[in-house]
Amino acid sequence: MLLTTIAVLALQTAPADMLVENALQVSTAQGSYITYFNADGTYTSNIGIEGTWEIRGNEVCVERSTGEHGCAPIQENLELGASWEGENAATGETVTYTIVARE
């Protein structure tokens, strides 16, 4: 039981660690921007978007400082360069997410 709990916790923290150690490029039809997730549960972007975030199950959930909020699926086994499509948690727009090196 304890080993199962530890394994589950390790899987839940892995995506969070990858997001904090790197950055997330969000590509839309209008262009792209970079989101920087911080270990304290806040995030910022290179276009002025900021707010709070958390991992809930297999989703990353955000709440912008302006009030928009939502959750989006997060790919398993994240690594630098991993890319997947999903719905922008705050806008509902279909976007491409890519793990990029944090600058």
Give a quick rundown of the structure:
This protein has one helix at residues 2-21, and strands at 23-28, 31-37, 42-45, 50-56, 59-64, 69-73, 83-87, 94-100. The protein is an alpha+beta fold and 103 residues long.
Describe the structure in your own words.
With 103 residues, the protein is of the alpha+beta class. It has a single domain (2-100), classed as Lipocalin (Beta Barrel), CATH 2.40.128.540. 19% of the residues lie in helices and 46% in strands. The protein contains 1 helix and 8 strands; from the N terminus they run H-E-E-E-E-E-E-E-E. The chain has an 8-stranded antiparallel β-sheet. It is globular and about 30 Å long. The chain starts with a helix and ends with a strand.
CATH class: Mainly Beta
**CATH homology-level superfamily:** Domain of unknown function DUF4822
* Strand order in the largest sheet: 6-5-4-3-2-1-8-7
Class derived from helix and strand content: alpha+beta
Number of spatially distinct domains: 1
Q: Write the CATH architecture name.
A: Beta Barrel
Mean pLDDT: 85
Calculate the terminal CA-CA distance, rounded to whole Å. 40 Å
Write down the secondary-structure element order. Answer: HEEEEEEEE
Radius of gyration: 13 Å
As for the CATH topology, it is Lipocalin
Strand content: over 45%
Number of helices: 1
Shape: globular
